[in-house]
Design a protein that fits this description.
The structure holds two protein chains of two kinds. By secondary structure, chain A is an alpha/beta fold. Chain A has helices at 2-10, 34-48, 83-93, 105-111, 113-122, 167-174, 187-199, 215-220, 225-234, 268-277; strands at residues 55-59, 74-77, 98-104, 127-132, 178-183, 204-209, 236-238, 255-262. Chain B has one domain: 2-Layer Sandwich (Alpha-Beta Plaits), CATH 3.30.70. Chain B contains three helices and four strands, in the order E-H-E-E-H-E-H. Magnesium ion is lined by residues 62, 104-106, 133, 135-137, 144 of chain A.
Chain lengths: 278, 96
């Protein structure tokens, strides 16, 4: 009898205690990289052996915004673009809680861009995982501030001519203390970057280049999720410490990945504490 | 503990290769093929059969080559596959 229980216990998914397996299968398309980002995040939590009661995940709106619903910790699915201000409130009201924002490129850099910039400037103690699929996926594949030139999207039917945002450069310029980028296939390196970011006090950003196997892929004829994954992985070049102004991503060209920024700045709470102490 | 997190068995008598047993939750699989493509030991293939959603789940063809590295589990975006250490399960059931 006991042997059977042991066998069954051993056959539970190792991430059972971190993810809401009762909600699987999740909504993401076959070959979407968002699941990989979640997998790396869960593995990072496992490695850090965090007290899950002292951890909170906040997402905005979008395909990536759905992450909050699948992680088995206190999690919040907020309004579009407002994950960072919501997370800031949680952090300032509960300084002993680790707050993580997991959201999409559109949510964080477009509608939420101003919050991103000012949370980085204030150095609020948050870890931001930005899943960059170069598009507004959930709403049908519109052009995003991260869409490379000249990719097609449903709202750039003649190709995108806008100059795209470079997320690591934006984060560094605004004041983030830790900035890294990996593709959704660099599972081990991505996991260790998330571990580092979670350990780092202050505003840390990990960008995950992820295939949208539905909208971005279809309109640009990039194949399925596996084709895109392979392409991104095979075209990524690891260059730790690369100046962030070299990190633009051109359409279907090489992608520089690695850890780019790791520096010390007083966090918002530290500055406030010091100010009122004197 | 996963294979790559272990201390190397230098000096110990005959190091035994670590072996894994694979568990596939077929109905969760969306047939993306990541596990099949990126298993370092080519343990898996895409099977011909369909799961309840109409996707082709992976099939284990060379379980003897599985080294319990855990990469298939990490790379599966649908949390549909994982490995457990073969030895651990055996010894647990033996002691019981
Ligand atoms: C205030 C507001 N404006 C617009 C929308 C519509 N909307 C929902 S998701 C989304 C874009 C999401 O893009 P991204 O953050 O990149 O997430 P993805 O789906 O690509 O993961 C938009 C514009 C909304 N829900 N609320
Ligand atoms: S639409 Fe794109 S980003 Fe959204 S779940 Fe599907 S593949 Fe992923
Ligand atoms: S645990 Fe490693 S060796 Fe075994 S099937 Fe998975 S990826 Fe392949
Ligand atoms: S990685 Fe997961 S979803 Fe993709 S084929 Fe393998 S088991 Fe299925
Ligand atoms: Mg997006």
């Amino acid at each position: 009898m006991e042997a059977i229980i042991t066998q069954q216990e051993a056959k539970r998914h190792p991430m059972d205690n971190l993810l809401r397996m009762d909600r699987m299968p999740h909504i993401w398309c076959p070959g979407c990289g968002i699941g990989n980002a979640v997998s790396a995040f869960a593995d990072a939590l496992d490695k850090l052996e965090y007290n899950l009661d002292k951890l909170c995940v906040v997402s905005g709106i979008g395909c990536t915004g759905r992450v909050a619903g699948y992680i088995k910790v206190d999690s919040f699915h907020t309004t579009h673009g407002r994950a960072i201000p919501f997370a800031t409130g949680i952090k300032l009201g509960n300084p002993d809680i680790k707050v993580v924002v997991i959201s999409g490129d559109g949510d964080l850099v477009s509608i939420g861009g101003n919050h991103f910039v000012h949370a980085a400037r204030r150095n609020i103690d948050l870890t931001v995982i930005c899943v960059n699929n170069f598009i507004y996926a959930m709403t049908g594949g519109q052009v995003a501030p991260t869409t490379p030139t000249p990719a097609y999207t449903t709202t750039s039917p003649f190709g995108n001519f806008e100059n795209p945002s470079n997320v690591p450069q934006l984060a560094e310029a605004a004041g983030a203390v830790y900035v890294a980028r990996w593709t959704a296939l660099h599972m081990r390196r991505l996991t260790y970057s998330i571990v580092d970011a979670l350990k780092k006090p202050g505003f840390s950003v990990v960008e995950v280049i992820s295939p949208c196997a539905m909208y971005y892929s279809r309109i640009n004829k990039l194949g399925d999720g596996l084709d895109m994954m392979k392409f991104y992985y095979d075209h990524s070049i690891i260059k730790h410490g690369e100046p962030t102004d070299h990190l633009e991503i051109d359409y279907q060209k090489e992608i520089i990945v690695g850890k780019f920024v790791d520096r010390e700045r007083p966090t918002y709470s530290e500055s406030m504490g010091k100010w009122f102490e004197d | 503990m996963r294979v790559r997190e272990r201390i190397k068995p230098f000096g110990s008598e005959k190091p035994q290769p670590v072996k894994g047993e694979l568990i596939i939750i077929e109905d969760r699989c969306k047939g993306c093929g990541f596990c099949v493509e990126y298993c370092p030991n080519d343990v898996l293939i895409v099977s011909d059969k369909f799961n309840s959603k109409g996707y082709h789940p992976p099939e284990v063809v060379h379980e003897e080559n599985c080294r319990y590295c855990g990469f298939c589990q990490l790379v599966c975006p649908d949390f549909a596959i994982f490995s457990i250490e073969e030895k651990a399960v055996e010894s647990k059931s033996n002691t019981a």
